[in-house]
Each structure stands twice: as structure tokens, then as C-alpha cells.
């Protein structure tokens, strides 16, 4: 089955805001090559963040919290940027959060294409998400299964820390177990820093 993308509310309003934002910043930024009229917003998905303490404690993906809605922006059939809307926890309105063009943009599209070829994905039913663990510099495709017996798949996007292999699928538990020692070390390092 194809991977399901998020049903983002007010997506048309977001596209209009995005076009206006790009028109305003493109002439004086690295986004000068973008033509708002030729951009397509594709693969909408929710971005989740998992904290360092959660990974160090061995917590599962259920501790990840939604922080944004993200689109891949495609121009001339290639991904050129990603745009995000911040998800406000206690406010009904969301706001434009960021526009970026780093390695995770093309990496997301590649990971989606590769994930669609996985036998488990072809047999199952998955929702597209993105998982970030900022303290460990991890960004991964998170395929959330709609069938609890199937389990979720997490596919790290390059660049990754040495404990992970980009493009390889992990269960949530495998991912957290692989990163656990690094998370504990990072916590010890953070605690040992002298106060400023």
C-alpha cells in the first residue's frame, strides 16, 4: 500500500503564506533560485521530536511530541526545500516556522522512495512522519503503522551518528537502544559543564 501523508488543515492557506514568504526572502537569501509559482508542496507530514532524556531512559516513540507540519517543496521535479508550520500546543492557530534546503530535504524524498519498496510497507498501512532527536543530530523517516501488531518503522536519513545506518529500517525500540549509550554520555557531558 502507498504510504499515507498527513491531512494538514488549512494547507491552501499555508501554500499562499509560503509563496508570499518566498517572494519576500528569495531575493536576499539562498532561496533566490526558487520560483513560488513553480513550486509544488508535496508529501505533507507531521514532525515529531524525541528528547535526549527520553532516549537515555529508553523511552519509546510514544514519548515523541508533534512540533510541526512539514512539506517537501519540489521545483522541476526535484526537491529544493522543506517548509514547516509550527504546531502550537495550546493555540488553535499555527505559524510559519522555517524554510530549509539542507541534506535532509533530498534525503527525505530518497527515504520515502526506498521505504515504499520495503516488503513490510507494501503489505502494510503506514502514515508518513519525520522524527527528530536534536541533541543527537538524528533525523529519520518514521512510518507509523496503523496496525499495532505490525509495529512502526524508523529509517534514519543521512548524515547519521555512527550508531545508525542511513536508509536501514529500525523498529522504534531498536533505534532507541542503538542511541541509548550516546544519549547517556551526552547527558553526563551536559551535567558536567560548568555553569555560565
Which tags fit this structure?
single chain, 196 residues, alpha+beta, seven-stranded mixed beta sheet, globular
Strand percent estimate: 25-35%
What's the helical proportion of residues? 25-40%
Number of strands: 7
Q: Give, in order, the helices and strands.
A: HEHEEEHHEEEH
Q: Whole-number radius of gyration?
A: 18 Å
Shape: globular
Integer count of domains: 1
Number of helices: 5
Q: State mean pLDDT (0 to 100 scale).
A: 86
- By secondary-structure content and strand pairing, the structural class works out as alpha+beta
Strand order of the largest sheet: 4-3-2-1-5-6-7
Report the major sheet. Answer: 7 strands, mixed
Low-confidence stretches: none
Cα(first) to Cα(last) distance is 53 Å
Can you characterise this structure?
- With about 200 residues, the chain is α+β, with helices and mostly antiparallel strands.
- It has one domain (about 10-190).
- About 30% of the residues lie in helices and about 30% in strands.
- It contains five helices and seven strands.
- The protein has helices at about 10-25, 50-55, 105-115, 120-125, 170-190; strands at about 40-50, 65-75, 80-85, 95-100, 125-135, 140-145, 155.
- Strands 4-3-2-1-5-6-7 form a seven-stranded mixed β-sheet, sandwiched between helices.
- Strand 6 (about 140-145) and strand 7 form a beta hairpin.
- The longest helix has 21 residues, at about 170-190.
Q: Can you summarize this structure?
A:
This protein has 196 residues and is an alpha+beta fold.
Topology:
Elements: H1 11-25, E1 40-49, H2 52-56, E2 65-75, E3 78-86, E4 95-100, H3 103-115, H4 119-123, E5 126-133, E6 138-145, E7 153-156, H5 172-192
Amino acid at each position: 500500500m502507498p504510504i499515507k501523508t498527513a491531512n494538514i488543515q488549512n494547507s491552501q492557506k499555508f501554500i499562499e503564506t509560503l509563496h508570499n514568504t518566498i517572494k519576500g526572502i528569495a531575493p536576499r537569501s539562498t532561496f533566490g533560485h526558487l520560483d513560488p509559482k513553480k513550486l509544488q508542496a508535496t508529501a505533507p507530514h507531521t514532525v515529531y521530536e524525541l528528547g535526549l532524556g527520553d532516549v537515555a531512559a529508553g523511552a519509546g516513540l510514544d514519548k515523541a511530541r508533534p512540533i510541526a507540519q512539514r512539506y517537501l517543496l519540489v521545483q522541476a521535479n526535484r526537491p529544493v526545500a522543506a517548509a514547516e508550520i509550527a504546531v502550537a500546543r495550546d493555540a488553535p492557530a499555527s505559524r510559519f516556522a522555517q524554510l530549509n534546503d539542507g541534506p535532509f530535504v533530498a534525503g527525505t524524498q530518497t527515504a520515502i522512495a526506498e521505504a515504499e519498496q520495503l516488503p513490510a510497507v507494501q503489505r502494510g498501512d503506514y502514515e508518513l512522519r519525520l522524527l527528530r532527536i536534536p541533541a543527537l543530530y538524528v533525523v529519520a523517516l518514521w512510518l507509523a503503522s496503523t496496525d499495532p501488531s505490525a509495529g512502526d518503522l524508523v529509517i534514519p536519513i543521512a548524515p547519521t551518528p555512527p550508531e545508525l545506518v542511513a536508509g536501514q529500517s529500525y523498529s522504534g525500540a531498536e533505534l532507541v537502544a542503538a542511541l541509548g549509550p550516546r544519549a547517556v554520555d551526552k547527558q553526563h557531558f551536559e551535567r558536567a559543564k560548568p555553569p555560565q
